[in-house]
Amino acid sequence: MKLARGICVLGLSTLALSSTGCLKAMLLKGQIKGTRDGSAAVNTLHDWEIARGVATAGIGQLEGFHKLAPDNTDALFMLTRGWAGLSFGFTEDDYEEAYEKGDDVMAEYHLLRARAGYARARHYGIELLGHHATGFEAAKRNQETLSKWLKENFTDKEQAEDLLWIGYAWIGHVSASKDVPEIVGELYVGVEMVKRSAELDDSLVYGTAYTILGAYHARTAMAELDESKASFDKALALNGGKYLATKLNYAQRYYCAKGDKAAYEKTLNEVLAAGDDLPAARLPNVIAKRRARRYLGHKVWQEECGFKL
Question: Which of 57, 212, 224, 284 has the fewest CB atoms within 10 Å, counting from its CB?
């Protein structure tokens, strides 16, 4: 937009046509910024079905913004967050429904949809990174080089939100691609972004960085359970247990890996019993309740944890 502003200045003293084009660019920029500022309203919705329609329609508008203003960082951010959120909140839900019904064909279909959605989020996230610093592809050679690059180039608290959602998208893409070794092998990229985000501002989205890290540390049979618990506890300290995604993941990741069925069920029931204590995050909490009901109600999820029924 620096170029557009320069054209505007010249246009005032030359052709009206130039200033007209610049005015359109300025109006578009303002519209995109306004959309980002107002996007938080979606999280107050109480109806999952309505929210799905809103999210699906909204992503098309964001794609249009990017087409018209490809270098606009607000549009890139919203596309990164939007595709990642759509993939988690709705496409993965389709996958889980098909999976627990034993419909392998539809489960595979929805899994590929989720993978593609996260991939698109990651694509826009990489574009967004390029507006902060150069050299990302070289930096992600390994965990150490990436960590160094992030610490050198991301030093401002205001950069934390971009890193959080790019990391979220990256980790989601890995989670939906467990059968693709080259994708799984780059899990550390998303993790390092989330870690750096937490270092810059760990309060974002009710401590979501710690919830992500808690799930990460409980991801395998060789789970780092102490680190997982510490991360989840940090998230709970920040959100007071009102942001239900933390408790949902605590149960589904930590207690599942630990093999503690009683704590698993207790924590999921706490999610279901929670009131509307965080109106600003009503939709994420509706999604958490929807998942908790599923994980308690169908044996396939508990069997995956190794719990005896």
Answer: 57
| 161 and 32 fall within a common domain | no
Cα–Cα distance for residue pair 286/46, rounded to 1 Å: 7
Of the candidates 305, 298, 271, the residue with the CA atom closest to the CA atom of residue 287: 271
The single-letter DSSP state of residue 156 is S
CB-CB neighbours of 230 under 10 Å: 14
DSSP designation for 134: S
Q: Is residue 309 part of a domain?
A: no
pLDDT at 123: 98
Tens digits of residue pLDDT in 279-295: 999 999 999 999 999 99
Q: 248 and 208 in contact (C-beta within 8 Å)?
A: no
Mean pLDDT of 78-104: 97
| CA–CA gap between residue 246 and residue 300 (Å, rounded) | 22
**pLDDT-based confidence at residue 5 (cuts at 50, 70, 90):** very low
Q: Tell whether 3 and 152 lie within a shared domain.
A: no
Q: How many domains does the chain have?
A: 2
Q: Indicate the pTM of the whole model.
A: 0.91
Q: What would the two tokens of residue 214 be?
A: 């808690």
Tens of pLDDT, residue by residue over 102-115, are 999 999 999 999 99
Token couple for 205: 């989205």
Q: Are 230 and 207 within 8 A, CB to CB?
A: no
Where does the pLDDT of residue 223 fall: very low under 50, low under 70, confident under 90, or very high at 90 and above?
Answer: confident
Given 9, 29, 44, the domain boundary residue is: 44
Same domain, 35 and 74: no
> How far is Cα 89 from Cα 48, in angstroms, rounded to an integer?
9
Quick one: how far is CA 278 from the chain centroid?
Answer: 19
